[in-house]
Amino acid sequence: MAVQLNHGDDDLAETHEINVTPFIDVILVLLIIFMVAAPLATVDVPVDLPVSNAAQQPRPDRPLYLTIKADLGLVLGEAPVTREGLAAALDAATGHNREERIFLRADQAVSYGEVMQVMNALRAAGYLKVALVGLEQAAATAPTASP
């Protein structure tokens, strides 16, 4: 006994087009999420940098910042470190690459002697390539001579 399924002459046309509207909606939502999340991913240690009028140098893709905060605490990247553990933290962050440049930032309230002590600690750890970081001085705030 055979069964025949006959629906009559109702031939439905097959559609071979992809509906891209939901795809575009998803992409736009992801774009908005990334636009909001990107600035949050660059959280930084708050530090009041002094102004510099030196020409800006190109920066590597992933610079390694060592920050001296106003309370004289050290922060390597985003993680606080002690002065005694600085060499080990640098070795871990650089993969024992002592040729990598360390970007040193210090709050304006930090004395020159403290900056030199940290630079001496960097030298003792074998990191001789140190770059000092400061804010760029705008042309409008440049000092002018008064008559």
TrEMBL record:
Pfam families per the UniProt record, alphabetical: ExbD (PF02472)
Keywords of this entry: Cell inner membrane, Cell membrane, Membrane, Protein transport, Transmembrane, Transmembrane helix, Transport
Membrane topology (UniProt): Single-pass type II membrane protein
Localization terms from the record: Cell inner membrane; Cell membrane
GO cellular component, one term: plasma membrane
Keyword Protein transport: yes
GO biological process terms on file: protein transport
MF terms (GO), sorted A to Z: transmembrane transporter activity
Role summary: Involved in the TonB-dependent energy-dependent transport of various receptor-bound substrates.
Subunit and partners: The accessory proteins ExbB and ExbD seem to form a complex with TonB.
This protein's name: Biopolymer transport protein ExbD
Species whose genome carries this gene: Chelatococcus composti
